[in-house]
Design brief:
By secondary structure, this protein is an alpha+beta fold. 32% of the residues lie in helices and 22% in strands. It has 3 helices and 8 strands; from the N terminus they run αβββββαβαββ. The strands form 2 sheets. A 5-stranded antiparallel β-sheet has the order 5-4-6-7-8, with no helix packed on it. Belongs to the FAM3 family.
Amino acid sequence: MRVAGAAKLVVAVAVFLLTFYVISQVFEIKMDASLGHLFARSALDTAARSTKPPRYKCGISKACPEKHFAFKMASGAANVVGPKICLEDNVLMSGVKNNVGRGINVALVNGKTGEVLDTKYFDMWGGDVAPFIEFLKSIQDGTIVLMGTYDDGATKLSDEARRLIADLGSTSITSLGFRDNWVFCGGKGIKTKSPFEQVSVSDFHL
């Protein structure tokens, strides 16, 4: 009986050692695979960082030529998200800055120095167009004018106001309708129509 018991103990120990060996080998393989995967990911991450495209001012897709201003604009989304106007990597107007509002949002910039001269918004739904007209008439020659709508920028917009904006280089202002999304960059004294203008027609008057 003692011999048989000893034999069983030896077998049990052998099985335990074999099991431990197999587990340890599998564990090592898994660890090696994990480390290899980790190193591979690390190499890929390093490569990704080294090939990451450069960031340009205001998040635009490429650098501006010398003696040019980098800018980016986004109109408001319905009456939920306000417009955003960025110039030379400085956000001039946005919901975060709490200086935008329903209607037409305007930023005036010195065309030579890039200095921000003024930022205002004019309610073209429930407001009066007269202050907006006076504001447009007061803009000095050589001023860059950036505009973006929020919610509705057209209901109170009179023919005179549209003409004054058209004189700044806009082509779409004459047909701007209720709740159209519109962004525009022009200038006082511009001799041609501005190429920096986009409009998205609202479903409300399609």
